[in-house]
Amino acid sequence: VDPPIEAVRDRRVLALRRLGKRIVIGLEHELFLVLHLMIAGRLHWKPAGAKNPGKLGLAAFDFETGTLLLTDAGSKRRASLHLVRGEESLRSFERGGLELRDADPAAFRRTLASENHTTTGPPPSKSWRRTRRAHEFRYDTCTVRRRARA
Questions:
Q1: d(C-alpha 21, C-alpha 16), whole Å
Q2: What is the pTM of this model?
């Protein structure tokens, strides 16, 4: 496996950023730790040298000032940790969604109107569909209204 996990040992953290739903920790030598917490994944800051908590603990990152623990309390263990080398490898984690911090109101409106943004699952009951009103989404000073589909 390239790079091996041992490659992060004694590397300085140079950057911390978000990539969609993932947390990216940039290290020396173009190394990146990519965390996805999913539903039950958590990050805990503990005193330096803290032990990894048994079944829940997935990883422990030791720093001079403390230890960052990655845990997952879910039964399916969906949280993930990846190590990649270089910005090019990091791009494989991009899912192509709209980055709200960088989007202007017009881009937000176009994206919102471009497809159905409902959750999957069983269709709502008929009474719920009859009483549903137009959805209203707010973004800064932009208001986008979508008519509810019957």
A1: 13
A2: 0.68
Average pLDDT value for residue range 110-116: 75
Question: pLDDT for 72-86, tens place per residue?
Answer: 988 888 899 999 999
Q: Is the pLDDT of residue 54 over 50?
A: yes
Cβ partners under 8 Å of residue 119, min gap 6? none
Token pair for 43: 């990050």
91 token code pair: 């791009």
Helix ranges (DSSP H) in the chain = 87-90, 105-114, 126-131
Q: Which amino acid is at 91?
A: R
